[in-house]
Amino acid sequence: MTRQNFYGIIFLLAGGLMLTTCHKDYFDLNKLSDEIELQLQLVAPLIYGSMSLDDIVERVDSQGYANEFDDGFIYLVYSDTAFSMRADTMVDIPDKFYTEYYIDSDIDIPIWIGSEIGDTVSFYKSELFAFELDGNDRVDSILIKGGQIVIDVMSSFRHAGILTISSGQILNVDRDTFSTIIEISDPSGGFTDHQIFLSDGYSLKTSEENDTSYLQINFKLDLINSGDPINPEDVCEIQTSFLDLSFYNVFGYIDSRNLIDERGSFDIPLYADNPGLASLIFADPRINIFTSSSIGIPIEIELDSFIATSSRDGSEIELDITEGHPFQIGAPGVDQIGEWIDTEININRETSNIDDIFAAAPSGITYNLIGRTAAGTEADQHFILDTSGLDLTLEFLLPLDFKSSGFSLQDTMEFELGEDGIDTSLVKFAQINMTTLNELPIELMLQVYLLDETYAVIDSVFNADAVLLQASLVDTDGKLNEPMEETNTVAFPAEKLGRLENVSFMLVEARMITSAGGEQFVKLYSQYSLDFEISMLANFRINNRESN
Amino acid sequence: MKVSMNAISRLTLSLGITVCLSLSGEAQISNSVYFMPGVPQANRVNPAHQPNCGFYIGFPLLAPMRMELSSNSLSYKDIIYPHPFQDSLITFLHSEGDKQAFLDKLEPSNFIVTDLRASLASLGFRTGIGFFTLDVTTRMDQAVYYPGDLAKLVLNGAVEGETYQLDGIGADLSAFDEVSLGWSESILDNLQVGVRANMLFGIGDISTRRSELSVTTSREAWNIQSDLLVSASLPFAEVVYNEDGMIEEIVINDDIENLDPFSFPRYMFNTKNLGFGVDVGVNYRPIEQLQLSASAVDIGFISWKDEVHDAAYKMEYDYIGLELDPLELTEDYSFGDYLDSTFSQMGDSLLSFLEFTPGRAYSKRLNTKLYVGASYYVTPNINFGLLSRTDFLQGNISQQFTASANFTTGRFINLSLSYSYKNSYLKNFGAGFSFNVGPLNLYLISDNSLNALFWPQEARSVNLWFGMNLVFGYRAEERLDKDKPLIY
Description:
The complex is a heterodimer.
Chain A: H1 3-27, E1 37-52, H2 53-60, E2 66-68, E3 74-86, E4 96-103, H3 109-114, E5 120-130, E6 138-145, E7 148-155, E8 160-171, E9 177-184, E10 191-198, E11 203-205, E12 207-209, E13 212-224, E14 235-243, E15 246-253, E16 258-267, H4 269-273, E17 281-282, E18 286-293, E19 299-310, E20 316-318, E21 327-329, E22 341-347, H5 354-359, E23 362-373, E24 382-385, E25 389-399, E26 401-403, E27 407-414, E28 427-438, E29 442-451, E30 457-460, E31 467-469, E32 473-474, E33 480-482, E34 484-493, H6 494-499, E35 505-514, E36 522-523, E37 529-543, H7 544-547
Antiparallel strand pairs in A: 1-37, 2-3, 3-25, 4-14, 5-13, 6-11, 6-15, 7-10, 7-14, 8-9, 8-11, 8-13, 12-13, 15-24, 16-23, 17-26, 18-22, 18-25, 19-20, 19-21, 19-23, 26-36, 27-35, 28-34, 28-37, 29-30, 29-31, 29-35, 32-33
Chain B: H1 5-21, E1 55-58, E2 65-71, H2 76-79, E3 80-82, E4 89-91, H3 99-105, E5 109-127, E6 130-147, H4 148-156, E7 157-158, E8 162-165, E9 170-188, E10 191-217, E11 222-233, E12 237-241, E13 247-252, H5 254-257, H6 264-268, E14 274-287, E15 290-304, E16 308-319, E17 322-323, H7 335-352, E18 354-358, E19 362-365, E20 368-379, E21 382-392, E22 397-408, E23 413-422, E24 425-437, E25 440-446, H8 449-454, E26 461-472, H9 476-482
Antiparallel strand pairs in B: 1-5, 1-26, 2-5, 2-26, 3-4, 5-6, 6-9, 8-10, 9-10, 10-11, 10-14, 11-16, 12-13, 14-15, 15-19, 15-20, 16-18, 20-21, 21-22, 22-23, 23-24, 24-25, 25-26
């Protein structure tokens, strides 16, 4: 081996040794640290959704106070069925007793004297009997329901005979003229008879004379000459009684009388349950009275002592109706017998001080409802059926057309992260982005306060006065013109995340303002929606040593 | 001596990384062997090469035994290196590790390839019409592909507005037997040609046939697009599907499970998974000192037909968050319940895109390699070579260059020192040694062997050829030239 080759080999070995020594730095695995740390960023959409006002109302309105008009315009309604009556008790038909006599002066003596024994001599009488109801009521006709017509006859004439009683104004159930024949069979002068006619289905048609209703009843007495004389004290007494009559229908004139005197009350939980809503100003609050009547008489009703109690201070304010009060409600005409006529009475800010009532944020209402048949003239034609009735409903209607420069709601809820809380060695920073597209004409400012177990405030989630939702733009009528999009970012640095471990409660405070800074009335429609998208950005730091 | 679990795990990690990453890319065949015609199996890279002997026969399993493991982008030191301030080693995942440097090392498409070939039979003999070879080789190729963006997603997370191209993710695992018949002959004084025909018998295969996957992340949406198709030929197992079309069970055939030796030929030479290939080569000496050569090997394909199954995952999915109706939440149905329910639905939805079906036959071509080389003979025993190698991979082309210095003492010793440029890595130093002791021929060749000695922490690949043959009958002209007695 030459010297050069020798040196070359020595050089290579030395170089190799040096290199191998260097390699040892990389391969001495006893020195290998097992620490692993990852610092990751993660962006991701989290949740999205859409809530229509219809959905919200359906969930929130467990009592069913909310409703909507055909176009989706939402209103709240607090209603009370104030009164309901049936007319069969409206008119009372008193028992009637009519008495007619045949006495000697009613006998045409010359004819009687000229008659032979065994001849029949007839004597006729016709009487008008007044058929009156209470007060100034006038009856033109009645279809009788129940009751009876009782005829009692007593004759002291010592002659046999036949008594015929009839009236063209009394029709039996077959619509035939009422007529009955009573045979006086006892010529001894001691004859009596008692006849009862069940009058259900009979009709009475009166005639009027000098503002009085009359029934004309005709009598025919046929006496068979027995040969005995007719003495001055002889008499044939006929008593016709109408007993226990009620009616299927009554036609005539029913004089004015009180029908309703009803006290009622209802709560308005909108304010009672949410004092924060007291600043709402409603554009068009209404009281609606709905009636339905089949009584053939005009009726008027009066709201008396309609008093609201303020939810703020308990003060009372009385409703003052300036127009159309008392209210006339519709009645069926004679061509609408059996029909129910509906009437809607609206009390609004044009006809009353109802806006003052609502400005007081009433938590409850008391009222006294008075109803009576309307005063008329005796020329008026009324009718009542036994099935006639009157129903009346009172409602407090609040279309959601309102404005507010700031109303707030708040709620405290439990918040538990669990024993481990948030591992801030894992999550170093989190940022939540929320983008909303709001059709609601309400601006929402939200703050969430983090409270410890003693309800002391530890921190807040948002910066002060964070606007979570921008109110949509509305036109002059308060309807949606343009939805508003808003993006909010909430940052949770590690120190804020760390504080969550001590949080026991969250106080959520929402402050809301209607569009245009609360200066404009806005309307809420059920089809309005709120779309939201929530995404996150988070920085994670994962270290196996710290995790252990 | 006590060995702690910690030490074992570290050792395992170290070995794994070293083995995985100290192998070079797609260079399943050592380039150094190209310029070692004294190695009988050199004709594997150029069928025109003829050994100097008249006859050789290889030892079963050892003629040659070839192993290779490589990564195209990462080396050991990209993963483990000294702590910057302390006397310790850290991984790139350590808090003081440089994750960005790790990511910078990655290519858009990365792979780890392993290649194991064992020759069951290898023989060659010279006749008046040329040199003939017969080889039976069992090949097992595995490749795992991982896009660089996958590591970016894992290490950096999903950041705003980023699109992670995960195309190419997947794995190919293939095992087949190759029966080769080769012939080479000098058709002119200075022109030698060779050709080898290969018949291929597929044992089993899993192939990622389509791999398009991207994930775009932002706060607004995650968009996932996927078109993945994995096909498998599993002749040794029965795949049972349930009513939903999902794989319920994979049952290994009884004869395999019972290691029935008589059943092995059926699987080893499965004619249902038949393939064909051809290798061609040429050597040309325009002048005595210069030899030009070229070869193309592994031109061919395997048609996989036996027990083929497909798994497809094709979808376009926009995740824009979980749809939530806050009004649905109640005391009885919390947000947690909602999340459970929704994630479950989402999982089912994503899973619904996964479709397993008994598949149709598919063909898979071999990774063809093209070699172009030149050797300059300073003396008859010393030459310097340059080699260009182009690998036509599944969807990629890889280029390598190798320079080598080659020395031969004739029949006794062949030595080669090589330097290769592979996958943008410059320090690939290799060596090959071939010894003939009597009729016994031994050789050991690697393109990266010196890396392991000098820069093991930088090595990306290791390949190793080891062979043992019995050789007879060196060429007469050589004997005449050397004027040596015939000893074989």
